[in-house]
Amino acid sequence: MEVTELKYILEAALLATDEPLSIKRLLQLFPEQELSANDINQAILSLESDYSGRGIELKKLASGYRLQTTEVMQPWLQNMWQQRPKKLSRALLETLALIAYRQPITRGEIEEVRGVAVSSKIIHYMMDKEWIRVLGYRDVPGKPAMLGTTKTFLDYFNLTSLQDLPSLAAIKDIETLEPELAFEATDSEQETQESEADEE
Asked: In this predicted structure, which of 44-53, 81-90, 178-187 has the lowest mean pLDDT?
């Protein structure tokens, strides 16, 4: 198979799905071809070069590769929607940030840092979004669950790994974390979070 044809097929596959695609998954497109992971990697590198300096980019994430619009295009693209998504609640942001930066961490440890109880709805919301998961259980009385982030969290917030998180030294408070990771929620999500914050 010619490199150009391979690139076009990979490009089409990446456009056809919202999920990041791994090299292994992309190889599954060619069950009858003698292609290797290296062939796919070379085609991906060529595609990345093709999109350099344009309005879209081929982004490597934790779960694989995704075609997406570049960050600099957002001011223009947001005009396509009449109503902008509302931001995530402060309670959810603080909880998620603590899990991301201090994982594995228990709910009790989060509450100790924040100084308030963590709403069960916030934990369930993040688990439903598959941003966090139980990594294990602390070997202390009560066996509290230890929470950590997932690949879905990294993919959602455009990160390849936890090392891509802004450094804690660069974050003065939770408000500066929002633009760093572009935390946003839909109207229905905002309503849920507001009711959760009221419970605290």
From this structure: 178-187
Report if residue 85 sits inside a domain: no
Average pLDDT, the chain: 84
Beta strand pairing call for 56-60 and 145-149: unpaired
**59 and 99: one domain?**
no
Q: What tokens does 39 get?
A: 């062939």
Amino acid at 166: P
pTM of the prediction? 0.69
Residue 146 makes CB contacts below 8 A (sequence gap 6+) with 103, 104, 105, 106, 134, 135, 136, 137, 138
CATH code of the domain containing 22 = 1.10.10.10
Give the residue-averaged pLDDT of 24-44. 92
**132 is a domain residue:** yes
Confidence band (pLDDT; 50, 70, 90) for 34?
confident
Q: Is the distance from CB of 29 to CB of 73 less than 8 angstroms?
A: no
Q: Contact 100/93 with Cβ under 8 angstroms?
A: no
